[in-house]
Amino acid sequence: MKKVNDLVFLLLMMLLTAVFTSTYVSALNLKEVQCNNDGSMEFTVIGTDPDESYTKDMIVRIEDLIVNGTWTGKSVKDSYSEKQRYATFSMPENALPEKKAYKINLYYLEDDQSKTKEFEADCPGLVFSCSLLYIDVDRCYTDKGHFTAEITAKGLRQSNLVNGFNVDPGKALDFMISTKNPYKAKTNIIDKRGPLPSEFHISESGPDKYLLTFDLDQNNYVKDIALGLSEDRSFPLYLADKCRTSKYSHIKLSDYETCSLHESEEPVIVTPEGYDVRNNINQDNNQDADRNINENNTDNAITGQVIKNSYNAGNTLIFAAIIIVVLLVIILVMYSRIKKNRKPF
User: Fold this and answer.
1) Where exactly are the structural domains of the chain?
2) DSSP string spanning 270-312?
3) For residue 61, which of 121, 15, 110, 134 has the smallest C-alpha distance?
4) Residues 4-14: pLDDT tens digits?
5) Cβ atoms of residues 31 and 44 within 8 Å
6) 25-124: in CATH 2.60.40.1250
7) How does pLDDT run across 272-300, given as a tens digit for each residue?
8) CATH number of 130-272, picked from 1.10.287, 3.40.50, 2.60.40, 3.40.960
């Protein structure tokens, strides 16, 4: 009989446990997760409890790393309002660049107890991200007709995928140069301003660093250079079209630099009238020397005038002092005579 009672008790406990488990509802559930080919990721949770679960208390761990992101709401709860019922966690571009299923753990509080939601984000891998792009001309110069530009171009080879954004700088960058004398561009147009010559070379000098070189006539040089990300519509360059929208206005996709005549020289300075300072250095030096002489003469004239004025002022003071002394002597003499001629009463 005792064995029968024990068996009945065990069955009742199992039944109660099953009922409790089936009726238990978590405070929140995962609604959806999306991983994008720019390396960004977002997932949405839905509140299933009348009590609020605050997103500030939630922690997101991907693999073995606790990550930061942005929540769309302060809390979630069971509500007719979608704004109160849903909250989305977002991570920026290039956050999850690998093609793999990332294991994600979401830690949150429920009835002051720590709970965990485990799920996966199946990511396609990074194809292209605007946030990785950056273009800059570090410096440029011409030495005896040989031109060199040191360039920083980040994000040209950013993907490990076959269909990803991986381009050569010669195809990804557009250049415009301005020269002292006309030159023949690769478009066969001879002018002082235009694209690169037909023969140029771009070599890699370091991570995201490149050297642009080409030759001009020995008496010619590059005054300035402008470059930007190509607007070619071929694959994969067209992927960068979205980077030109206002969303990515902070991304530097172009640059302009004034160039120097030699590697160690300062850049060429050209006035709005086209006056080239570098071709008139001696003339400017002579003008500066004449200007200094004139300024010195002017300074000397001013100094002489100041000395002359000071001298005149000194003479005036001495003359006034002499007059005062003479007047005092006359007054004393007259007073002495008056005193002698005065009769006693």
Assistant:
1) 25-124, 130-272
2) B-TT--BGGGGHHHHHHHHHHHHHHHHHHHHHHHHHHHHHHHH
3) 121
4) 455 544 545 55
5) yes
6) yes
7) 444 444 444 344 444 444 454 444 444 44
8) 2.60.40
